[in-house]
Write a structure and sequence with these properties.
Layout (H helix, E strand, L loop, with lengths): L2 H7 L3 E7 L5 H12 L3 E4 L2 H7 L8 H25 L4 E5 L4 H5 L4 H8 L3 H6 L3 E5 L18 H14 L6 E4 L5 H18 L1
């Protein structure tokens, strides 16, 4: 059986890991790699790829607009590439397409018109959604060089990201907890349950 036929038979499944800055996404994804190995495939965060590669960060309308368009294009191409080449695995996405809406410098209507899509189409791209709330202020991590938000800005973004994903039928929100290990264990258990039901 050739790969093209295999791709038609096996429908890849996707989960987006999203949430506010310092919610634990990177820690969780590292844990999922160790726990599930070849059962999953990670789609890395598009923003990190672009910014670490030197994409300019210009804090005005034009800067935000072109950055988010580039992030969204990279995100979509990464997902298509990995789904085509690893159709038998659960694709774990470090953020999803609607995260860009939270950072978009214009209206929601403008966002969907610009990307040529709808909320319904974007929500339907992901079978599951796991949102990790930003950590408490005492636990807020400022060591990530890609992250430019202070704690209060992070809380605002956390709420915007939640709103961007409103309506997803299989969204789980994990709130900030004083015991970070418990939060990670709950998230890992959710992915284990998904893998068991695939």
């Amino acid at each position: 059986m050739n790969t093209n036929n295999l791709n038609q038979i096996i429908q890849p499944k996707k989960i987006a890991i999203t949430g506010g800055p310092s919610g634990g996404k990177t820690t969780l994804i590292d844990a999922l790699k160790k726990e599930f190995g070849q059962k999953i495939k990670i789609a890395p965060e598009a923003a990190s790829i672009l910014y670490k590669g030197g994409f300019p960060r210009i804090k005005n309308y034009s800067g935000y607009l072109h950055a988010q368009k580039s992030i969204l294009t990279t995100q979509n191409e990464l997902e298509h590439l990995l789904m085509e080449n690893f159709p038998e695995r659960l694709l774990v996405c470090d953020r999803g397409s609607l995260d860009s809406l939270a950072y978009w410098p214009d209206t929601e209507e403008h966002f969907f018109k610009t990307i040529g899509s709808t909320r319904e189409k974007e929500l339907a791209k992901y079978d599951w959604l796991l949102h990790l709330d930003t950590a408490f202020e005492n636990d807020y991590d400022t060591s990530n060089p890609i992250r430019t938000e202070d704690f209060h800005e992070a809380l605002m973004l956390n709420d915007k990201i939640k709103k961007a994903w409103d309506g997803h039928p299989k969204r789980v929100i994990l709130t900030a907890q004083s015991d970070f290990f418990t939060k990670m264990r709950k998230a890992t258990d959710i992915v284990a349950e998904i893998l068991g039901s695939k």
